[in-house]
Amino acid sequence: MALIELRGVDFSYSEMETPVLKNINLTVEAGEFVSIIGGNGSGKSTLAKLLNVLLVPSAGEVIVDGMNTADEENWLKIRQKVGMVFQNPDNQLVATRVEDDVAFGPENLGIPSPEIRKRVDKALEAVGMEKFKDNPPHNLSGGQKQRVAIAGVIAMEPECIVLDEPTAMLDPQGRKEVMETIHFLNKEKGITIIHITHFMEETVGADRVIVMNQGSIHKSGLPLEIFREIDDLKKLGLDVPLVVELAHELRKKGVEIPAILSINELVDSLCS
Amino acid sequence: MLIELKNVSHIYDDDLKGTEALKDINLRISDQEFIGLVGHTGSGKSTLVQMLNGLIKPSSGSVIIDGVNITGEKTSLLGIRRKIGLVFQYPEHQLFEETVYGDVAFGPRNLGLSEEEVELRVKEALELVGLDYEEFKDRSPFNLSGGQQRKVAIAGVLAMKPEVLILDEPSAGLDPQGRQQLISLLEYLYNNKGMTIILVSHRMEEIARLSNRVIVMSEGEIVFDDSPARVFSEVEKIRELGLDLPEITEILWRLNGKGLRVRTDIFSLAEAVEEISRELRGSSKC
User: What pLDDT score was predicted for residue A139?
Assistant: First the structure.
């Protein structure tokens, strides 16, 4: 059974306005790593908010692990299953010590203290922040803060984490840390990842890339399939990773290069 | 207009450890420069740019703008801010007026200009950032998309007609199209309006493409101050500082390391394609 299923979902913020999402049909299997790209205003963030019931659809259904988000009785359970990480790390941290911040969620669930202790330690270890557990969050770097925010979500033991542009405010080092962390969580802990981003190069390690445009799913496929259609993506105001575009241009010059997604693959194909 | 920093050091008042956010900075910025300012988080970039328009006064040393030492007691900072516009990170968080017009007009009105002149400036600034005056002037900035809000905020700074424009991570959070529009705007302001531009960015490809001088900061000091080609040839050092290379440079450098003798001082895709295919000489292998 699919972990998340959207069936014919529409969403409008008010009846007066044009819908932000139109007839979305989407299935995410447990264990998948899905990247969502699309221009500003394409509906990506709204879609994300439907997945852990920050919003409910105007029409259609969102089903999480068999539970319909329209049913208020399911909300708490769904929010435990699907955790959310946002763009700005400073808006997500509340406590004065890292480990208190991570414990905040489980405490609210009424989980007994020894269990919380275990969960917090495990969560901080999973994001590589165990050494910082006594530090005040505001002294951490952006990437470290974002990893603490992710640990806070992991401590809820979710099956899926939705990340809405988690690296947008980070420097290259911070971006790398966060991307490595979410790939680790996906591969080693089996957590389903739904990752929204404007950085095309962050999507090449995903199992699937979904392209959103004007409230609809424009395309869905393997990164290689999606980035093959360079002109199509550019029409939507999107990019392809630079190395993909370089390979594309070199092919036009008669250089034979197989389908590639990374600098390593390009260099190996030219100079093996 | 000349901006000069002489032996500038800075320690924030609330920093109990007394860490120097800037250490003995000496810097001259002349007319018609496009400066890329880079460094990892905490390197002192933001402190430096805030010093350039008088928001922060240095703990020691002097900041001289257009011949005036602005660290002196009686300097008019209004005059400085008129000449040097600063676009903060996420400037759209500072929008506050009921209409787009009101927000962009706020600065010029404070200069005591006539309402006709204010209107002219608002029109021109909105056009520069690519927002249609008639369509947007009466709208609430809060009902615009994030990308449009960013444009309104930038227009508010442009309406002051600064001679120097400083932008701190202006493309953060924008989609590829929004980023491209911003890059075109900066190119236009630099080439056609004669503005001096100081761009703070983590995106090295932006820095490499746009600037003619790159300043790299680390731990409060300037570690490089040179042309993009020279700075980005210091591959090992750049990596050590926790910074990225422009992706093109990374690719050319790696190919070079594998024996394909391509130049590594190229920052545009088209030129890189030419260079690589030329070096391959009709073969598909190096």
Answer: 81
* Least trusted range by pLDDT, from A26-40, A178-192, B4-18, B129-143: B4-18
Q: Which domain holds residue A264?
A: 241-272
Q: Are residues A151 and A249 in the same domain?
A: no
Nearest to B207 by CA among B173, B244, B235, B254: B244
Q: How many domains does chain A have?
A: 2
Contact between residue A139 and residue A129 where contact means Cβ atoms under 8 Å apart: no
A143 part of a folded domain: yes
Provide the total of helices (H) and of strands (E) in chain A, helices listed first: 10, 10
Dist CA A147 CA A126 (whole Å): 9
Interface of B with A in 158-217 (CB under 8 A): 172-178, 202, 205
Residues A219 and A246 placed together within one structural domain of the fold: no
Which chain A residues contact residue B42 at CB under 8 A?
141
Residue A36 lies in a domain: yes
Question: Do the Cβ atoms of B285 and A272 come within 8 Å?
Answer: yes
pTM: 0.87
Domain of A131, CATH number, reads 3.40.50.300
* Residue B150 reports pLDDT greater than 90: yes
Assigned token pair, B164: 């120097």
Residue A18 lies in a domain: no
Instruction: Clarify whether residues A124 and A259 are in a common domain.
Output: no
pLDDT tens-place string over residues A207-237: 999 999 999 999 999 999 999 999 999 999 8
Q: Which three-class secondary structure string do you get for B119-175?
A: HHHHHHHHHHCCCCHHHHCCCCHHHCCHHHHHHHHHHHHHCCCCCEEEEECCCCCCC
CA distance B254 to B235: 11
If asked whether residues A132 and A265 sit together in one domain, one would say no
Percent of chain B with pLDDT over 90: 74
The nearest alpha carbon in chain A to B239 belongs to: A173
- Judging contacts by C-beta atoms under 8 Å, the chain A residues touching residue B242 are 171-173
Does A151 share its domain with A252? no
Indicate whether A246 and A219 sit together in one domain: no
Confidence band for A81, pLDDT divided at 50, 70 and 90? very high
Query: Nearest CA of chain B to the CA of A259: how many Å?
Result: 14
- As a whole number, mean pLDDT of residues B224-246 equals 93
In this prediction, residue A1 carries a pLDDT of 75
Quote the pLDDT of residue A173. Answer: 84
Pairs of CB atoms within 8 A across A/B: 103
Is A62 among the domain residues?
Answer: no
Q: Which chain A residue has its CA at the smallest distance from B252's CA?
A: A267
Q: Kindly indicate the confidence band of residue B282, based on its pLDDT and cuts at 50, 70 and 90.
A: confident
- Assess whether A154 and A262 both reside in one domain: no
- Tell me, yes or no, whether A209 and A245 share the same domain: no
Sequence length of chain B is 286
